[in-house]
Amino acid sequence: MNIKIETERLFLRPFEMADDKDLYEMDSNPKVHIYLGNNPVKSIEQVRESIKKVLQQYSDFGVGRLAIIKKDTGEHVGWAGLKYEQVLRKEFDYYDLGYRLKERFWGHGYATEAAIASRDYGFKDLKLKEIGAAADVDHIASNTILKKIGMQPSGTFTFEGELCNWYTLKNPHL
Questions:
Q1: DSSP-derived secondary structure for 18-53
Q2: What percent of the chain has pLDDT over 70?
Q3: 24, 54, 60, 84: which has the fewest Cβ within 10 Å?
Q4: For position 38, what pLDDT does the model report?
Q5: Cα–Cα dist 17/31, whole Å
Q6: First-residue to last-residue Cα distance in the chain
């Protein structure tokens, strides 16, 4: 997949196997997984398998999560972007907007900036009709970001015993 999204402070680019150490740093942190089932990764091999799955999504669907890189320092912040989601909502598949950051980058607006860029890419470049997103009802920061970028609250659902808020947004360019 040959894509590079640029924002004021960030680059979003496809995952590479060389991202494994940065993704391990993020996904082995229990605080990152509080609202994700409390199941942080335990080995770098788990991360490498996740990267392989994302690379396969690029091939299968032409879309997938992207690495977030700070322009000024080259630091790996986390990931953001769209993916074709087939598991979270049992009743339908959809294009999901998501993000996950290393703890030290929380609270600086990077997730919002990357989410806006991902939303715009989905609507303007991919011409998606609609984007969905979900957040644990107790995850204040994530719910705030989704509302801030224009996602519309559209009910709740339960995933693996956790109550989640459901958001949708129709493409305003179509």
A1: GGHHHHHHHHT-GGGGTTTTS----SHHHHHHHHHH
A2: 100
A3: 60
A4: 82
A5: 24
A6: 25
Residue 75 tokens read as: 């630091």
User: In the numeric block, which tokens belong to residue 30?
Assistant: 């229990």
Band the pLDDT of 1: cuts 50, 70, 90: confident
* CB contact at 8 A, 129 and 174: yes
Q: How far apart are CA 21 and CA 60, in angstroms?
A: 25
Give the model's confidence band at 27: pLDDT under 50 very low, under 70 low, under 90 confident, else very high: very high
Which of 118, 171, 167, 119 is CA-nearest to residue 144?
167
Distance CA 105, CA 114 (A): 12
The single-letter code of the amino acid at 85 is: E
Rounded Cα distance between 164 and 174, Å, is: 28
pTM comes to: 0.96
DSSP H/E element including 96: strand 94-101
